[in-house]
Amino acid sequence: MDFCAADESIKTLEEQLRVWKQDEIKDETSIHIWETTRRIGKEKHYFTIEYRSIYDSIMKSLGFFFLIHDKTEEFIKYENEKYRATHDQLTGLYNKEYFYEVVENMLLENKNEDYNIIVTDVKNFKIVNDVFGVSEGDELLKKIADITRKFGGSYCVYARLTGDRFALCIPRSRYSEEALLACYSSADAFIENSSFKTHIHIGVYRVTDRNLKVSVMCDHAMLAIRTIKDSFRSRVAYYKTELRESFIGDHRIISEFETAINNQHFLPYIQPQISANGCIRGGEVLVRWIHPVDGMIRPDKFIKILEQTGLISRLDRYMWEAACAQLKKWDDMGYKKSYLSVNISQKDFYLLDVYNVITSLIYKYGIDPSRLHLEVTESAIMDDPATHLQLIARLRKRGFIVEIDDFGSGYSSLNMLKDMDADVLKIDMGFLQNTSNPAKSTTILKMIIALAKSLDMQIITEGVEKLEQVEFLSRFGCDIFQGFYFAKPMPVEDFETQYLNKRFRMK
Fold this sequence. Notes:
Layout: H1 7-24, E1 31-40, E2 43-55, E3 61-70, H2 72-86, H3 96-109, E4 115-122, H4 125-132, H5 134-152, E5 157-162, E6 165-171, H6 177-184, E7 200-206, H7 214-228, E8 236-238, H8 241-262, E9 266-275, E10 280-291, E11 295-297, H9 303-309, H10 312-333, E12 339-343, H11 348-351, H12 354-365, E13 372-377, H13 378-382, H14 385-398, E14 401-405, H15 413-419, E15 424-428, H16 430-433, H17 438-454, E16 458-462, H18 467-475, E17 480-482, E18 490-491, H19 492-498
Helix pairs in contact: 4-5, 5-6, 10-12
């Protein structure tokens, strides 16, 4: 820097040197070095000042001098590099690593203050990039960053963790769910000239254990978001200890699945299907996981997880083969009229060559395809109706009996009935039980049964728990019944002993 540009500058410098010498040098040491900042004009400068005393040959002080190094350029460069290393370049918020560090220090320094960790996630953000372009997606992220700053104010720490995921740490005394929702709802209609709405899900972790890593705290908040799932009504969810236990349980199911398959821990259970006159017609194959340590694990504990991961197709194929092997065994025992029903999941249509897998199993075990009934739900078919209906038609042509399961649970049931050739219609008793208008439900049920009969379809009613229900439905023409009134799902051995080729006595 040119300090001699003007007399005024020299005068200012001389005055400043006297101040520095007076303020900073307190002893007779010959060398002193310190750093300081001073304004020169309107600019702030960063200096390293070195003071040195001058002595003659007999160490008599002759005077002193200053060495002044203007480090402003170096300092600015360092600060810029530090900023890039600690901040997200798009939004200007802290990056993930620096957020963790700052929050950790904040929790250590303010032990009497309670905090919340908040994580936000944009639902279906990929759609924004795919439909509206990356630049529009970036603008949305900047908007969310601005909203995050606005909500928290100067007493919070903010970060963009990854992609469309943001986090902030806020004193609990400053937290308001109402204010939180009000802020983030402003991003809903951010994309101009579009009917597309942005939905931001929010997870909150109330900091109770300060020994946890901040990254784990953020993970807890994300676990809370998972509970919102596909809801458009709920936006905010709070972490509970049970969520972590559930998460660990989910991972355990996935990690132990392969072993369970290989060691035959998944067993077929059969729930009898019985005609109105008490004849045992067959049964539905339902899976049970017999864990070597935990005992029986109910299907509601693992089926959804396997569906989410795609492992359900592996399990379904396993159960199809178990059913075919059982039918072959009954053939050898002389019971050649009983059938078994198996389920085809939605994922099976995408992850398996359903036709070739099922027909090859029939060929392998040498059984009549009509004895293996295939249950499909409306939702599984309607995901890709043209392709799936064609497949169903091929299976029926090959000789398989096709059942429409959970009829009436969707909104396109009649339309599907029009387009899909099926042999059996399965109705759940919940159709009558879960209603505020039983009279109207009864009328609709009568019409469904009559319609199925006119289409030459059998009717199976599942969920039957009382004799009165059997008698009631029999009058309307229901053919076959399934439910706890007759029996719960049971091991194959119990089914063979108690029901195979026998009659059920109506009480």
